[in-house]
Amino acid sequence: MELIYETTVTGVGEKAMEFLDQGMFIIFRDDAPEDLKEFAIIHKENNLLREIEKNNTLKMGNKEFKIRCVGSSVNKNMKELGHITFRFDEEEECLPGSINLEKKHIPEIKIGMQIEIWG
Questions:
Q1: Which CATH number fits domain 3-118: 2.40.10.10, 2.40.33.40, 2.60.40.10, 3.40.50.720?
Q2: Residue positions of the PTM Phosphohistidine (predicted)?
Q3: H helices of 1-119, where?
Q4: How many Å apart are CA 19 and CA 35, to the nearest integer?
Q5: Which of 8, 57, 100, 113 is buried most, with the most CB atoms less than 10 Å from its CB?
Q6: pLDDT single digits (tens) 54-73
Q7: Is the whole model's pTM more than 0.90, yes or no?
Q8: Which of 29, 37, 43, 83 is catalytic?
Q9: Is 62 left (phi over 0), alpha (psi -120 to 50) or beta?
Q10: Residue 43 annotated as catalytic
């Protein structure tokens, strides 16, 4: 497998974990507006090495999730803003800025955790 994307969590917004109960989380690069940071997982580096595609694998800690679909704006938003929504709902159709993944338990997201996408 080839590394497609990698980043490290540098912050967790006060309300970011509320989204986990709904089977999703949002990431933003650390230069996001302050009012958005409280709802997001914050990361510093945005290393998108090539386009994210259906059937790639998201790795978080020791968990892996198959990507079910990739929204039409995902790669552009990731490159320019470091922003994306990850949804763990197995839907085959995505909102433009979302990646849908297989529905499994989402690990606790902590500062220092690696988020990677492999293909």
A1: 2.40.33.40
A2: 43
A3: 16-20, 34-37, 74-81
A4: 16
A5: 100
A6: 999 999 989 999 999 999 99
A7: yes
A8: 43
A9: alpha
A10: yes
